[in-house]
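$ fold --in a.seq
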Amino acid sequence: MAKPPRRRLRPEARRLEIVEAAERLLQVHGSRVRVEDVVREAGVAKGTFFLYFPTWDDLLDTVRQRLVSEFDTAHPLPTEVDGPVDWPSVIEAQAGAFIDFASARQGIGQALFHSDFAERRTMADNAILRLSAIIRAGQEAGAFGPVDPEPTARLLFAAIDEAPRAVAGGEDRAAILAALQTLLRRTLAP
C-alpha cells in the first residue's frame, strides 16, 4: 500500500503539527511518550522532529510554555484601572481555575511539571510569581495582611498544586476547593 503524498507545510505549521501531536499524546500517556510516538502521531520523519527540536527536552519545554500561556490567557489578572479589585475573590478564583485547568490535564501536567524533565529544565515558576503579584496587590489595597509575598505564595501554591491530584484521586472537588479557600482566607487575612 502506497503512502499518501507528503503535505508541504510552512516551517511554522510543521513545527506546530509536532507540538500538537506531543500535547495529545502527553495528555493520554504522560511521561511514557517518546520521540518515536510523536513523529508517528504527527506523520513526520524523525529527522524533521530534530530539525525543529534538537532534544526531547526542547519539545517538552515548548509544550510547557504553551500550557502556561494558555492558562495565563484564559485567566488574566485584573487591574485596578476600572475600580477597586476584590483581591480575596481573585486569589480564590485563580486557585479554583488552576484546579480545573490542571485536573483536565493530569497526564500532560505530570509529564511537564512533576517529572525528571521538570527537574532537568526548571523554569521561573509562573504560578508562584502570579500568586506573589496577587498578594502584593492585595496588600497594597489593604485586603491582605502583612505576610512575605514570595514564601507565602510558594507555600500556598504547594496546597493549590496538590488539589488537582486529590480530585483526580477521587476526593470531592467542592470539599477540596472549600478547604483551599479557607486556607487562603486565613493565611492572607488582614
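$ fold --in b.seq
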Amino acid sequence: MNSSGQKPLDPTDQRILRELQSDGRVTNAELANRIGLSAGPCWQRVKRLEDAGYITHYAAILDQKMLGFPDTVIIEVTLDRHDDETLGKFGRALADLPEVLEAYLTTGDYDYFVKVAIAGTEGYEHFLRDKLYKIAGIKHTRSCFALRCLKRNLSVAP
C-alpha cells in the first residue's frame, strides 16, 4: 500500500496514465493498442483508475494567446493576517477571478503564489487595481512576468 492507502500501480497502469496525460482524448481502442492490451481489459483498468481517484477529470488545455491573454504573471502575495477566516475569504475571492489560472497557499516569505493570465502591462495593471487589490487582507505583493513556458504538465505521471 502507498501513503494514500492504495495498492501501488503496476507498469501497465503507469503507462495508461502517461498516455492519458499526453492525450486525454485517445480512444480506448488506440490506448489499448499503445500499451499492448485488448480493448476490454484496457477499459476496465481505466475505469478502475478513475474509480480509485488516480484520474480525477479530463480537460481541454486552452491557448491563452488565442483567447487574448498572451501573458502569464506569477504574483507572490503576503496577507496581513493568517487566521482561517482571512485565508478562506482570500482563497474564495481568488477562485472567483477568471484570470487566475492557479493559486497555491505556500510556506516561506509569501503566503500565496498566484498564476494569472493577462493581456500585457495594461491588462496586468487592470487586474491588480480593479480585482486583486480589492480583496481585503493583502499586505504585500511581488510579481514577475513569465517570458516563456518551458514545461507544462497538469500532474505527475508515474
